Amino acid sequence: MHTATNMDYGKQMWSNKMKKIKVLGIIILAIAVIILLFIGKNPLIKRLYDELKNFKSFMVVKTSGYYQNIDQNKKYYKDEKNIRIPILIYHEIPNKEPTRDQFYMQTTAKKFEKQLKGLLDEGYQFISYDNLVEYSKGKKAITEKTLLLGFDDGWIGNYTNAFPILKKYNIPAAIYVVDDQVGTENYFNWEQAKEMAGSGLISIYSHGRTHIYYNKETPETLINDVNVAYENIEKNIGKIKNKVFTYPFGAYTEEQIEKMKQAGFIQNLTDDLINYSNTLDLSRLHRYYVKQNESSYTIIKNVCEL
Is the pTM of this model over 0.90? Predict the structure, then answer.
């Protein structure tokens, strides 16, 4: 009887302990949910959370054996080494900080400059699409810290805010304009586009005749629209050496990619993936969205896949 009583007592104690653990777990979970809800609504907490993530990225980059062992001055031709070739993509560059749900569409001029300067300070070099074509043909060598930079849509902030920063640091970039948006409200006009192209730093390319889901159209309609768009680009700013097209909304069909390739167009996808030398395909170029809350180290960590 004494042994059974001890066993019953032990079971009861264990049961009570488990109940306490469950209650504690529920309390912790409730607190976590409250914190997450608080983070989701409080701008200050959101910013602190972003800064903690950025600091973590800084530590990862600075302690990475891969990253530290790169010779940022040594250049390689396409067949000499498999190099990551990220294409960074932005949209509007305003002065006012955007709401969080617009972080992928808007990056303030202040943050944009800070991101670019951080990348330059870490030895990254920016090349143009013309440079990329030369590299793909084995005519140009690049470093392991090579990036391309682009902007979608042709927002006015590309001219008023981004362009002066790009000139300040001598960084080449591409802007993919939507033909029927040029010169309308919130978008730069052809005179401004010509000024940027005349600097030798900015390449003006096509983002379509209009901003639609081209995957719902025939390849023939797409090719016709892009040809018309380029006729307008060349009429306003001059001859384009390499014609680059970016799919609006990142929407395309495999047939369209093949037909556009046959027509001689370089094509940008939008999938947050990275290009590699040994699989470089100018008809399927991957692009990485840069966001307002990212530091240069977060960008480096993401594009280097550390």
Answer: no
